[in-house]
Amino acid sequence: MITEDENLSGEGGFLGGQVRHIRICGTGVAVPESVLTSEEIDRRFGLPAGTVSRQYGVRMRYCAVSETAASLAASACENALRQAGLQWQDIDCLVAASATMDQALPYNAALILSSLGTRARHVAAFDIGASCLSFLVGLDTISYLVEAGRYGNVVVVSADIATFSLDWSTLGESAIFGDGAAAAVVRKSAPEEASCIVASHVETHAEGAPWCHIKAGGSRYHPRRAAAAFDPLTLFHMDGPRLFRAVSRELPRIVARLLEGAALTLDQIRLVVPHQGSRLALDHLARRLGIDPARTVDILADFGNQVGASLPSALHHAIAQDRLRRGDPFMLLGSGAGLTMGGMVMVY
Questions:
Q1: Which of 23, 223, 227, 252 places its Cα 20 to 30 Å from the Cα of 282?
Q2: Cα–Cα dist 218/153, whole Å
């Protein structure tokens, strides 16, 4: 636990110039009503009961039917506001940090505000996207504006509907992905509060851009110019083995850089909150970094991989389960399409 006496400026505490005095003062999640169990997927593919759960580590996931990413995001935002003890009139900026779009135009943040109707006043609203790391990148970016006083209370929300883009004729990605939304309300920390961002780092390895994609949705593969059939372009494709090898190779270096920037050791990190990519990825992360699984957050079995919403969902559940307390240092960590990798060390 970090106290104010140890402090944040480098005097017996953190080194470097990355510290931003930012406080997460409320989080919230929202999921669709419909649940798809792994037993149902077993039956769909004619597999023995328990095969998907045992092989992929997911018991169930939530799948949107009538919900949109914007409607889920709005619910997650309002849950986060309730936890923070705030109302929409207290918010002056909304950041939508998602991997997927409801539609090509307008941007997700505008659609979220629209779905709220009269509950939200006119606020600054914009998108920040970095696939599965969108929440981390959004929080990292907006933190400078919050600390500078440009915005007071900000909501960062990730909402993704992945299941519509899955190829349900094959087992694999269809076994692990789910839909959902998660939001966090942030503000500048008061002088007596230890909450802060200590260090952050994100990097994109563009050679991995073709390894994870949905080609449809923009102008490059628009139906009016696509030479091939359009429907296959709307499906999600991932070269899982290549992604796994790249992330496995690079993530320890990124973790070392974060810890160096924070002037902390891994043993001093109370909790590691990873992107819920897959069972293999979560287990390998703990082994590769030498972290006791009890010090990581693992919600994959009950939610699957919620894409951009995965990381803030895991953070919310850690806070809700009292696994993070004020003054605790923790690490956000993950990777996503791009190929983007990165992390953040914070004091809750």
A1: 23
A2: 32
